[in-house]
Design a protein that fits this description.
The complex is a heterodimer of chains A (337) and B (526). Chain A is mainly alpha-helical and 337 residues long. Chain A has 13 helices and three strands, in the order αααββαβααααααααα. Chain A has helices at 2-13, 15-32, 34-37, 77-84, 129-165, 167-181, 185-195, 200-211, 213-226, 230-237, 242-279, 290-299, 304-332; strands spanning 44-47, 50-52, 89-91. Chain A has a three-stranded antiparallel sheet, covered by helices on one side. The longest helix of chain A is centred in the last third of the chain and has 38 residues, at 242-279. Chain A is elongated, with a radius of gyration of 25 Å. Chain B is α/β, with parallel strands linked by helices. Chain B folds into two domains: 2-254, Rossmann fold; 269-524, 3-Layer(aba) Sandwich (Rossmann fold), CATH 3.40.50. Chain B is 37% helix and 26% strand. Chain B contains 20 helices and 21 strands. In chain B, β5 (66-69) and β6 (72-73) form a beta hairpin. In chain B, α8 crosses α20. Chain B is globular, with a radius of gyration of 26 Å. Classes of the chains: A mainly alpha (337), B alpha/beta (526). At the A-B interface, α10 and α11 of A face β17, α14 and α16 of B.
Chain lengths: 337, 526
Amino acid sequence: MNDFSKIWERFIANNRSKYSLYIFLILFIISLFSEFISNDKPLVLNIDNQLYYPIIKSYTEEEFGGHFETEPDYKGYFMSEKISEQNNWAIFPLNPHSYQSINLNKSTPNPASPSTTNYLGTDDRGRDVLARLLYGFRLSVIFALALTIIGIIIGIFFGAIQGYFAGRTDLYLQRFIEIWGSMPELYLLIIFSSLFEPSIGLLIILLSLFGWMSLSDYVRAEFLKGRNMDYVIAARTLGLSDTKIILKHILPNSMVSIITFLPFRISGAILILTSLDFLGLGVPPDTPSLGELLSQGKENIEAWWLSLSTFLVLVGTLMLLIFIGEGFRESLDTRLK
Amino acid sequence: MNILEIDNLNIYNKEKTKTYLNNISFVLKKGETLGIVGESGSGKTLTGLSITQLLDTDIFSLHANHIIFKNENIYEYDEPKLQSIRGNKISMIFQEPMLSLNPVQTIRSQIHEVIKLHVTKDTDIINELTESILIKSGLDEYKKVSNSYPHMLSGGQRQRVMIAMSLVCNPDILIADEPTTALDVTLQGQILNLLKTLKDENNMSLILISHDLDLVRHYADNILILNNGRNVEYGQSNTIFNNPTHEYTKELISSRPKKIVQNKINTKNLLKIENLNCKFLMKNSFFKNKREYFNALQDICLDIKEGETVGIVGESGSGKTTLALSILQLLDYEGNISLNNKNLKNLNNIELRQNRKNFQIVFQDPYSSLSPRLSIKEILSEGLKSFKENLSNHDITKICDELMQEVGLDKNMLSRYPHQFSGGQRQRIAIARALSLKPKLIILDEPTSALDVLVQKNILELLANLQKKYSISYCFISHDLKVIRSISHRIYVLKESRIIESNETENIFDNPKTEYTKNLIESSFF
């Protein structure tokens, strides 16, 4: 544990990576509350002296005196009239658009340039770009985290087995990895996306099947080194089981270097998701995604707000992650002053 | 004539909050040898480095009244002027020659570089000089050596190359920082004798830095003893040895291993090894008869009785550690190893695990033998937990307390982590871990080689006491004959993976049968 606190101390001493980490965490936490920041439903609604919270709870239009048993369009004609009646009021989020809400009463054609209603303009279907960026950022980061964690678990599992048992086990698994790794990942993705309905889950499974190999190589090397350490031999003479030796003796001592990979793997995963979406092989069309925005920017080259804003978000995110990763790597390297 | 005079040398860290060297003064005459002796961390190497101000100025700050070399105060020299002295007038050789040599250049080009820098640029002279200096350094196959890369040479040859490189400019002073510590005993004597002859031939002065008091005594005219950066005693070596004034010096002199082992020997056999062979695959081939093996152990027959210490002596590469790992059943071997008449090879995995508590190991390096992420209590209780699963937390704490007491450590230290302990304390913890399962046999793989003499003595005494108390058998593996002699009942001499001689300790020392053993004894006792 002491090692980790030392590494943290050194990490904190590096201003660039420290602030990168803070900014990234703040942005991510904010994006977790996207529904409260950017939504087409009001935060609080007061109709006839009764308070409603449409974001947390869904109401039917009937409850507001309408005809439909579905959730009302709070920005539609009926609700706008209702809200503008005497004593009634509504508080909308900072950006009153959701990632899939379409602004129907607009005079300009889509994609519309930034204006007071849509701060970063709209995409080619009239959806708010700011909202889509916010939700898209959140989705990318969560997707990347999930992919990284799954990749790390599988990678450590196979790497540990290979490195600890070495010999035959190592040989066969290594050959398996070579064959597995030479499968054309992209073609498989194309095939699967036409066979199944594209979804985030499917994408995570497919990418996880191939993403663990680079890490397992590394874990294998760490374990090959660790299995011959004196304290591991001592543990074996004490009669400890293999699982116990792996989990208690070798893994904690190689964990530090595995953690260094984390930020780089996250940024890599974000990039993969974005490029797949850009090619149209990624998430289903309705989902907010940075890659889809980029491809819209390519189609509508004159709509600069599409490509520029997405580009900035993407570059900013990746840069923060790389700075964080760099900071971690340097704080691990005791040779650097 | 005084060639070097150091007056009041102090070294602090940069903030001057910590003192590494305190008021060190000494004088070196032409043709004289000065020995600097001390434990690790006493400032020996710092003293050597500070003479030509080779210290990293980001970490250390150096203060002295003067450092006079050949009537000039080099303390006031600037960097370019110091550079012309370093390696030219005052040169150094270090403990680990592999680290000091450039791995991607041949020996020839590395020596040429030195000559070009300090002596001459004339190609003919350079070649001549290279040849003569290599021959002088005892490298008779100079042609082969000069075309080799460092990794192709043996440890002794590398150290000779280092000596050749440091002597090529005819320095006035040679600083040898633990020049033989990384070498086998038989090589140690050769290298030191070489240094002595070369020193006499060239009429230069030698500063010999070492932790080994006996060795320094044999070669040095004057001795400076350091402890915690302070000058404890300084004077002629005979005076210091015959008449030490300071407590620390007395302790240091008396810490030379003495016979501490009990005489009584139980007659029952504990461990019996018959025809042990162990080989490693060097070159694989599909065809069985084309595979090449390295024989690490050949036809080893050995037995250890209850309560007995068996010493196993050999140089590096003789198969000592392979033997230890075979006994521990961690390697594939041929032959029989039986403990208490039970052949360990015939046991299945579960039975073997049950039997493991009977034999334990203590390693050489106390820094790598304890997992850095486990607390001492976790380290000590691990074996207990794996054998007796129903032990309560209270019982475990009690056993750990007892273990700590047994090895002379405070039980309050149980919650600490290994990095908070010194080398000697760590070795005690490693011994406590081995004791935790109450084994019948402990294999000690060079347990004292990484420790300072004073600590070494304490550890040996601890081991002897534990043996007396529990009648444990030890298999004591070491290259250090002095240590082996002090603790073993019987000795096996291992050479090139075979046992060449075995006998009672005193018989071996009084009457060695083979030439090799004789040599070994001669070079470790001056």
